[in-house]
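User: For my dataset I need records formatted as: sequence, then structure tokens, nothing else. Please produce one.
Assistant:
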Amino acid sequence: MKFLADMGVSKSTVRMLREQGHDVVHLGEEGLGRLPDSAVLEKATKEGRIVLTFDLDFGDLLAACTACLASVVIFRMRNQTPASLNSRLLQILSECERALAQGIVVIVEDARYRLRRFPIRETGDLS
């Protein structure tokens, strides 16, 4: 899988994913630490990457975007140490691999995770 790690994601998480055979880019490695969230999402979509972040704004951006195909994993855990995060991330990847390939948001909490498909589409005229 291909990932784009946002600035808050630890370099040890990036290293762990690479050791697992994944293609991972960290925004800091590319000098893109100040890139706006919308541009991060655009980059991820263009490169076919899954965004890893702690930033809830990505869910809002995907909900409003009809052309965004990237998936986003948003971490909302109390224990955000790399060891705890890495363990949860590996679990999410094994359980949600198919869905992540289709463009979703995964909100990762301590005891559960939630999947949301975006964009939200109109279902037609309700009148």
